[in-house]
Amino acid sequence: MSLIQFIILAAVAIIWWRLYARLRSGELTWLEFVEWFALWLGVAVIVLVPEVASYLAAWVGVGRGSDLVVYLALLLVFYLLFKIFIRQEKLARQLTSVVRGLALKEASPPPAPSRGSKPEVRP
Amino acid sequence: MKVFIIIPAYQESSSVGAVVAGVRSYAESVVVVDDGSTDGTGEAARAAGALVLRHMVNRGYGAALTTGTAYALAQGAEAVVHFDADGQFEPRDIPPLVSALSVGRPSAALGSRFLGRAVNLPWLRRLTLKLAVIFTWAVSGVRLSDAHNGLRAFTREALALMHWRQDRMAFSSEVIDELVRAKIPWTEVPVTVRYTAYSQQGSKQGKLPALKIVKDLFFGRLVK
Asked: Do A10 and A40 share a structural domain?
């Protein structure tokens, strides 16, 4: 086993351990845990048996296995970025509704007009 | 008719007082939504006789108008007028806008500076506004003469049918979309928009506001 294989596998092991901890603490659902576990399992398999990537690359029509890995990684990054955008938009809306609720609750009336004077109201 | 004027204001302490004083006689109540200003905008508005709602943090033009409109409806408003705090609009354009509404029915009146007058309109702004007209025509299927005008009026019945979600400048596009979706009859009313050095500071929207609006519209549709 080369050094780079060892480093990546160690990182994958740490990630698996963190995923498990987040599953136990309820931060991840079972489905999310399985998705992430499978993704990193794929990484581990490709690191251990790099020929798998070359085989898959040939199968889908991409030149080299490492190219396929880079393409997939880019796709994943774009997907995650998109998800973060959506989540941020949701959070922004939740923040707005909190801010709005407070503003409406603390509505402060204008200073009362002095006695005897009536504000002019036109339709 | 019980008319409420809603004025969103962010860092407008130098202009909001005069704007409130100018529009006060045209409505039952003037509501300024101080959108997280730190320059005393809320105090200036209150001193001029407005009811002030305060956003603790800045949430944007659309968020402020939605807050103010919700307040007006809760207070029994029969019609709501949206107005700007920077002094670009003419208070005397309010009565024609309100008279264009059909009382007791869903109805909207949209101000148009291109049917009315746009004083000192910079050419780049004119170009952007014309592109917005084409964009609105393509996306919402509505042919307006002025697609991003902040002077508009609605009846209570129209507001009950609309659902606003956009917090920032894309709100103006969303209003048109919602009018179409809820099949609310609308009409355009000529108004005057006066561009001054103050109203043209433009730093609040950041760079390329038009692109930001398109981005907000895109992501806004993906979030329920």
From this structure: yes
Tally of CA atoms within 13 A in the half-sphere of B112 that contains its CB = 18
The answer to whether position A118 is within a domain reads no
Query: Whose CA is closest to B35, among B4, B68, B69, B3?
Result: B68
What pLDDT score does B115 carry? Answer: 95
The number of distinct structural domains making up chain A is: 2
A80–chain B nearest CA distance, Å: 15
| Mean confidence (pLDDT) of chain B | 92
Give yes or no for a contact between B183 and B142, defined as CB atoms under 8 angstroms apart: no
For residue B11, give how far its alpha carbon lies from the nearest alpha carbon of chain A (Å).
17
CB-based burial label for A1 (10 Å; 0-12, 13-18, 19+): exposed
A2 and A40 in a single domain? The answer is yes
Provide the residue range defining the domain that includes A14: 1-49
Helix (H, G, I), strand (E, B) or coil at A108: strand
ipTM of the complex: 0.88
Q: What is the pLDDT of residue B214?
A: 81
As a whole number of angstroms, the distance between CA B70 and CA B67 comes to: 5
B97 CB within 8 Å of a chain A CB: no
Query: Residue B90: what residue type?
Result: E
Q: Report d(CA B148, CA B84) in Å as an integer.
A: 12
Q: Which domains does chain B have, with CATH numbers?
A: 3-222 (3.90.550.10)
Within 8 A of A95 by CB-CB distance, chain B residues are 57, 59
CA-nearest of B64, B79, B75 to B7 is: B64
Q: Are the CB atoms for B80 and B72 separated by under 8 Å?
A: yes
